[in-house]
Specification:
Blueprint (H helix, E strand, L loop, with lengths): L33 H29 L6 H17 L2 H9 L8 H34 L1 H7 L2 H18 L1 H6 L2 E4 L2 E4 L8 H34 L6 H40 L4 H19 L1 H12 L1 H13 L42
């Protein structure tokens, strides 16, 4: 049994990488599963994510113009996912080679940076979509002012820059080290700076995940309460169903991809700092490793969001599957979306308007 165990026996203390098998512990980690789980799961995410997001970018760029605000957010979400999946081949090699990184320290820093950049940009773009749809449903008059594609484009640019600036310290924390004939690419930092890294990581998690997650939950809670009010009309039922599907998909992405990863990572980091019992640390380590592919899976789940709430996206994709090519670019027409005035009883709109005069809160994706 001891021969199947991959970690080394050393002194208890903050590990160079609390997520990898090079962790230096006063106990043994059986991490053979990681060298199968991570390469296989990352390979699946790479193949599915690259195919789905490349197709999505192509449709957005050449066949879904002009964009509305929701389409703008979704394009940037797909771009973020594509950049992330392009980084996965190096990690697939790294874990398949049993934690050997031959690509240099600079690329190690960039790949680790790219993971968190994609992760938190995805969180914030989903939050932007949530706020936009909340305004369109509950405050359509405000959506006229803040729901335009120009404002959405500027907000997306701000998201890219703010997340990148917040993660700059990660470029200094992350490094490589040599252990015998193996070059390790640490996911965190060197042992003597691990406590500082945990404080930095906790602040980033609260700012770029905790707060957006809370805003998303509040928006969708208020939307669900408004949508469940009895309203007449068949078209209105269709619009209600579309909006509820959006709520379900976004909350599923948060619940499956983001929440387990952040919870298990926090528990693991705290366990390392408190020098927890070896058995407890082994259990937490295994659970944390299992949730890491889930965080990457958002690159595959996000395209489901485009499919469920974008009429134009579905039409173009259906045409591509049936006829071997998409339709020519179309002028934008609004989805049947909820438009609920702030000072009157709820009402629904289901109209097709000129693209220069979109309905409040309407998505023309």
């Amino acid at each position: 049994m001891a021969g199947a165990e991959s970690s080394l026996l050393t002194t208890l203390g903050p590990s160079p990488d609390p997520g990898d098998s090079e962790a230096e512990l006063d106990c043994r980690f059986n991490e053979e599963f990681k060298f199968i789980l991570l390469p296989v799961s990352y390979s699946v995410v790479f193949l599915l994510g690259l195919g789905l997001n490349a197709l999505t970018l192509w449709l957005f760029l050449f066949h879904l113009r002009p964009w509305d605000a929701t389409a703008t957010y979704m394009f940037h979400l797909a771009l973020s996912d594509t950049l992330y999946v392009l980084s996965l081949p190096t990690l697939i090699y790294y874990y398949a080679a049993r934690n050997h990184w031959p690509f240099g320290t600079g690329l190690c820093k960039f790949i680790r940076f790219l993971f968190y950049w994609n992760l938190y940009c995805s969180v914030l773009f989903l939050t932007c979509i949530s706020i936009h749809r909340y305004l369109g449903i509950c405050h359509p008059l405000r959506a006229l002012r803040w729901g335009g594609p120009r404002f959405a484009g500027l907000l997306c640019l701000a998201v890219w820059l703010v997340v990148a600036c917040c993660l700059v310290p990660n470029l200094f924390f992350v490094t490589t080290s040599t252990k015998k004939d193996t070059i390790l690419c640490h996911d965190t930092t060197r042992p003597e700076e691990f406590d500082h890294y945990v404080h930095f990581s906790s602040a980033i998690m609260g700012l770029l995940f905790g707060l957006p997650c809370l805003v998303t939950l509040v928006c969708y809670g208020l939307m669900a309460r408004r949508l469940y009010r009895p309203l007449p009309g068949a078209a209105q039922s269709s619009s209600r169903l579309r909006s509820l599907r959006t709520i379900a998909v976004v909350l599923t992405v948060f619940a499956v991809c983001f929440v387990p990863f952040h919870i298990t990572r926090t528990i693991y980091y705290v366990s390392r700092l408190l020098e927890a019992d070896c058995r407890v640390l082994n259990i937490v380590n295994v659970v944390y490793k299992v949730t890491r592919p889930l965080a990457s899976a958002n690159s595959c789940l996000d395209p489901v969001l485009y499919l469920l709430i974008g009429d134009k996206y579905r039409r173009q994709l259906r045409q591509l599957c049936r006829c071997g090519g998409p339709q020519p670019p179309m002028t934008a027409s609004s989805l049947a979306l909820v438009s609920l005035p702030e000072e009157s009883s709820c009402r629904w709109t289901s109209t097709h308007r000129d693209s220069d005069f979109p309905a409040p809160g309407a998505d023309r994706l």
